[in-house]
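Supplementary Methods. Inverse-folding protocol.

Structures were first reduced to a discrete structure-token string of length 474. This string, shown here, constituted the complete conditioning input.
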């Protein structure tokens, strides 16, 4: 329940545009076997009568003709009526399941708008059906976000985790934490209200033990949320290095396909080439870049632009695979260029040193390499598995346990702020004559930060940002 939410309201009492009945095509664009037109509002009886010509049994699929404005049949399909409040949005919902031709679905949509003009029916905005489900307490905010994450999941692990979040696993953990913080707040604030009792609150109520247990639970949730955010967002990895060190070959080897042109000619790659792969269910967005060297050494303007874009990609990366040519290590000009590139790499970006062409080199006689550097051959595949595992370690990934939930950057941020407030509360509680008002305030702030995850505390701007990224019809 989100009674504290400034936008929360009972069905039929939603503010502004949320009072309008809405309609949209709810199936994917293009041709398909079945297409869906969905409507939601406080009373859809006029729409049902006009399109279906009869009343519908609640939650029963009824095969019937969909009537046009002149009584003609637009199509024959299934109509399902979900009366409020037992529907996805908490309002009356009508779903028309027709043949999935784009022209036909547009005709049905236009007919719905025409028939529903008397009740103010309008086209739904992106995410508006799910937004209404949130506002009508059918879903909390974390579950609503999981709807979009399930649709957008790019790996099996991400889909499974999103499904767990949608079922309420993440929300239940947040609710349990919130309840424990509330109980602790009640103890602290009761002591503030009755100071004449002279109760040694911190000892008799075992407040510090409870606070330690809550913080440990938040830390565990934060660790899982980071893993869930990685499943959702993936890791941006850039392959960088001098020309002809094997970046394109490595991209092709990791992707298992000939994505980038590979030739012995330095500077073959002029622009970024990107591909998303997955390792143990984690999406990795791999970008191959133009070979790095001084602008004055570039063959032409096109290559100079490509080098500039390479540095832009590096600055936005989560991790950089700095690829070295093992067969050229020790050459003065090559080593000098390597040192110059290393100095220019952004200090905040994680760098993994990888030495390629191990199949062409006497590895035992090669110069010393940095600690943690990897040897591989993009041509033969030697060392690729070690590179994949190293990339997962760079991302902070741990073997995904059962029960992992999908998470977003804002969830991680909210848990981090919750953790910081709890740590501040611990610092106050550790003082013998603690200022209980400061302890109470830190617990209140921790509770508020936690409530942002499920939408207990939210605002219109946040909701607009979240639901505006949904597809229309969902």
């Amino acid at each position: 329940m989100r009674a504290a939410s400034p936008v929360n309201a009972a069905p039929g009492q939603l503010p502004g545009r949320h009072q309008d009945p809405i309609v949209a095509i709810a199936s994917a664009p293009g041709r398909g076997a079945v297409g869906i037109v969905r409507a939601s509002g406080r009373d859809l009886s006029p729409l049902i009568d006009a399109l279906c010509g009869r009343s519908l049994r609640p939650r029963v699929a009824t095969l019937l003709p969909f009537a046009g404005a002149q009584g003609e049949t637009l199509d024959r399909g299934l109509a399902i009526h979900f009366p409020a409040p037992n529907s996805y949005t908490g309002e009356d919902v009508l779903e028309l399941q027709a043949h999935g031709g784009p022209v036909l679905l547009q005709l049905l949509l236009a007919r719905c708008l025409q028939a529903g003009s008397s009740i103010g029916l309008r086209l739904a905005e992106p995410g508006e059906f799910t937004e209404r489900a949130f506002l009508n307490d059918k879903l909390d905010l974390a579950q609503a976000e999981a709807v979009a994450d399930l649709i957008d999941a790019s790996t099996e692990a991400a889909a499974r985790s999103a499904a767990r979040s949608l079922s309420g696993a993440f929300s239940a953990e947040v609710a349990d934490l919130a309840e424990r913080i509330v109980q602790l707040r009640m103890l602290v604030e009761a002591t503030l209200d009755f100071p004449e009792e002279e109760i040694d609150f911190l000892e008799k109520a075992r407040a510090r033990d409870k606070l330690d247990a809550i913080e440990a639970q938040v830390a565990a949730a934060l660790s899982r949320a980071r893993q869930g955010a990685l499943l959702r967002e993936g890791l941006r990895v850039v392959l960088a290095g001098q020309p002809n060190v094997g970046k394109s070959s490595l991209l092709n080897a990791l992707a298992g396909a000939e994505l980038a042109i590979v030739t012995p000619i330095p500077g073959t790659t002029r622009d970024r080439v990107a591909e998303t792969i997955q390792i143990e269910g984690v999406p990795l967005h791999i970008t191959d870049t133009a070979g790095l060297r001084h602008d004055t050494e570039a063959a032409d303007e096109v290559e100079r632009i490509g080098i500039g874009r390479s540095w832009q990609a590096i600055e936005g990366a989560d991790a950089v695979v700095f690829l070295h040519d093992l067969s050229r290590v020790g050459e003065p000009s090559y080593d000098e260029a390597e040192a110059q590139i290393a100095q220019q790499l952004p200090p905040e970006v994680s760098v993994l040193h990888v030495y390629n062409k191990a199949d062409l080199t006497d590895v035992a006689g090669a110069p010393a390499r940095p600690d943690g550097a990897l040897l591989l051959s993009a041509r033969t595949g030697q060392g690729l598995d070690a590179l994949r595992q190293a990339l997962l370690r760079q991302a902070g990934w741990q073997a995904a346990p059962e029960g992992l939930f999908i998470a977003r950057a804002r969830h991680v941020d909210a848990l981090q702020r919750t953790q910081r407030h709890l740590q501040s509360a611990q610092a106050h509680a550790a003082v013998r004559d603690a200022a209980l008002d400061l302890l109470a305030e830190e617990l209140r702030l921790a509770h508020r930060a936690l409530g942002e995850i499920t939408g207990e505390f939210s605002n219109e701007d946040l909701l607009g940002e979240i639901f505006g990224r949904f597809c229309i019809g969902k």
